[in-house]
């Protein structure tokens, strides 16, 4: 047992008795006991038994800068002393919120120059949903209210965000989606591309947006929302033809394009934002996670001049969260962005680490269980399959093999997540080449153990 806590078994029992976990089978948790993480540094976690684990998921896709940065602690402490809270409602503001909005406007592409702060990715997407409807109403087109999104997209867990998402298991609980949100298919060539080339498939999936707009009537559609690269859906990297066609369609029909950059923002894909890597310019970006490297919660909706000017001329947007522009969160975000920039973390992740990780990650395709390996920047996935040539699925229910592999990774002190039978990674951007070698070795060992189990 390390320093300051109860024995692991006692913590696990208390956890199972009193702590309700998100997206967790509580019966299984009670049976197995949670793995309790007590400290972290760089890319390494330490658990309550003193085991040291390589975190190839950056927490929950968020600790871009890595664990243990004293600078972030210092600015948070200073800000808490100076001004722990003040709101940004009713004609007041705070210095950290102002300076962070300015910095985000500098970093964001195109004319995305205006920032509405939120508390998380989910509530940022709720903001977006209300904002695009308010925008069209302000333009005299209130009937333009439908938002199109994608099956197997993930946009959060609130009623609005879970409806925007396309996770059928989430929709099944509580009667989602809410009205006014419709879904089209995802650009997942491996699972759904059949005999098409990835390029043709990318075009076909993008054109589903056009078909849907024409079916609904362009004058009824407010916006299309998507992740530049689906994260929680399994790190689905779209074919290169996909995004240019989506951008064309949105422009042609005057549909607002919302890029949900909650995962793909702040260096994850090798550029500051995923839309830059994928080659399109949205009207709104949803940000959270990497904005503070997860050290403290914060979300943001960054919007274009056109949206801002329209809202500015309209009735006040009757929307806002108490913690919007929280001064401590904004101060931490500013320092995080300074370090990501001035320490060259985003630059190095894109130019040096991403190519190395790509080579190593793709080398896993020589493993008998691995079909495709996809990676963009520092987010990657491998598809597990019993037959690479036919891209077959396992006979067992989807996710059984992926879950087993994930458990082997965990036992081998590697955090790698599974989505169905895809294994995914999203390590801190500060991961070194030597640490990538360890990641790959542990992944390969876990794949071997999974293969042995299947045989
Ligand atoms: N959007 C995307 C793309 C996400 O991946 C997530 C969370 O993983 C969210 C939104 C929701 O963010 P939060 O969990 O901060 O509410």
TrEMBL record:
Keyword field: Aminotransferase, Pyridoxal phosphate, Transferase
InterPro entries named in the record: Aminotrans_3, Aminotrans_3_PPA_site, PyrdxlP-dep_Trfase, PyrdxlP-dep_Trfase_major, PyrdxlP-dep_Trfase_small
Keyword Transferase: yes
Cofactor: pyridoxal 5'-phosphate
A GO term for molecular function: pyridoxal phosphate binding
Pfam families associated with the record: Aminotran_3
Claim: Ligase is one of the keywords in the record: no
Superkingdom per UniProt: Bacteria
PANTHER family: AMINOTRANSFERASE (PTHR43094), AMINOTRANSFERASE CLASS-III (PTHR43094:SF1)
Family membership: Belongs to the class-III pyridoxal-phosphate-dependent aminotransferase family.
Protein name: Aminotransferase
């Amino acid at each position: 047992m390390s320093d300051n806590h109860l024995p692991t078994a006692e913590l696990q029992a208390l956890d199972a008795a009193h702590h309700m976990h998100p997206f967790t089978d509580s019966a299984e948790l009670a049976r197995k006991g949670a793995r309790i993480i007590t400290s972290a540094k760089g890319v390494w976690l330490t658990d309550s038994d003193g085991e040291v684990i390589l975190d190839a998921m950056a927490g929950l896709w968020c600790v871009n800068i890595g664990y243990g940065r004293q600078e972030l602690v210092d600015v948070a402490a200073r800000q808490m002393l100076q001004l722990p809270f003040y709101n940004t409602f009713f004609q007041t503001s705070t210095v950290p919120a102002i300076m962070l909005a300015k910095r985000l406007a500098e970093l964001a592409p195109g004319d995305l120059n205006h920032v509405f702060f939120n508390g998380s990715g989910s509530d940022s997407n709720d903001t977006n949903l209300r904002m695009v409807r308010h925008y069209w109403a302000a333009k005299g087109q209130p009937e333009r209210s439908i938002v199109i999104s994608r099956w197997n997209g993930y946009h959060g867990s609130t009623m609005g965000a879970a409806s925007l998402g396309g996770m059928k298991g989430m929709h099944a609980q509580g009667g989602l989606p809410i009205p006014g949100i419709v879904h089209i298919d995802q650009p997942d060539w491996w699972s759904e591309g059949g005999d098409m080339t990835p390029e043709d498939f990318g075009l076909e999936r993008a054109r589903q947006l056009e078909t849907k707009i024409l079916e609904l009537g362009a004058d009824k559609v407010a916006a299309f929302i998507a992740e530049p690269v689906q994260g929680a859906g399994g790190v689905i990297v779209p074919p290169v033809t996909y995004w240019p066609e989506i951008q064309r369609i949105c422009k042609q029909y005057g549909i607002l394009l919302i890029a949900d950059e909650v995962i793909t923002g702040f260096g994850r894909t090798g550029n500051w934002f995923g839309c830059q890597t994928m080659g399109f310019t949205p009207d709104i970006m949803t940000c959270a996670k990497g904005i503070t490297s997860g050290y403290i919660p914060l979300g943001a909706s960054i919007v274009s001049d056109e949206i801002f000017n329209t809202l500015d001329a309209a009735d006040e947007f009757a929307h806002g969260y108490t913690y919007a522009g929280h001064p401590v969160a904004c101060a931490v975000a500013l320092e995080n962005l300074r370090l990501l920039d001035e320490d060259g973390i985003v630059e190095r992740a894109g130019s040096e680490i991403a190519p190395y990780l790509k080579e190593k990650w793709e080398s896993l395709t020589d493993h008998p269980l691995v079909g495709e390996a996809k990676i963009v920047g520092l987010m990657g996935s491998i598809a597990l399959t019993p037959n690479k040539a036919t891209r077959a699925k396992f006979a067992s229910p989807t996710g059984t093999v992926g879950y087993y592999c994930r458990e082997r990774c965990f036992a081998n002190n590697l955090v790698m997540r599974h989505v169905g039978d895809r294994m995914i990674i999203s390590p801190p951007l500060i991961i070194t080449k030597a640490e990538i070698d360890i990641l790959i070795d542990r992944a390969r060992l876990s794949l071997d153990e999974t293969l042995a189990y299947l045989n």
